[in-house]
Specification:
Helix content: over 70%
Protein name: MalT-like TPR region domain-containing protein
Organism: Zooxanthella nutricula
CATH architecture: Alpha Horseshoe
Order of helices and strands: HHHHH
Number of strands: 0
Number of helices: 5
Strand content: under 5%
InterPro entries: TPR-like_helical_dom_sf (IPR011990)
Largest sheet: none
Number of domains: 1
CATH class: Mainly Alpha
CATH superfamily: Tetratricopeptide repeat domain
Shape: flat
Amino acid sequence: SLGDAQASEAEVAFREAVQLAEGSSLASKPSTLYGTLADFCHFLSTQARYSEARQHCRRSLELSRSAADPDGTCAAQEYLGIMHHMRGDVGRAERAFQRAIVAAEQGTKPQRLC
């Protein structure tokens, strides 16, 4: 896990990234915003800040659904599943992972390895 100083630096960077994405990408590329929100959700989950993490995942999920983007929906559901698992709520984690699978089956882009 990250030390307190590193976690604080990472949080500042994530908050700045969200602000930049909100300011510049809503009109041109909303995936930047909901991708950043999903990543921030995961970071907050690793810091056991589940309530705040859930808010960011939910917002990411809403935006990706509005954009009809199965990749964004899949990522947000995966991070929700991870967050619920970290909290010890296996049932909710499983349901989130199942929703991620449904989103993936709707047409996510294949992952490429370098």
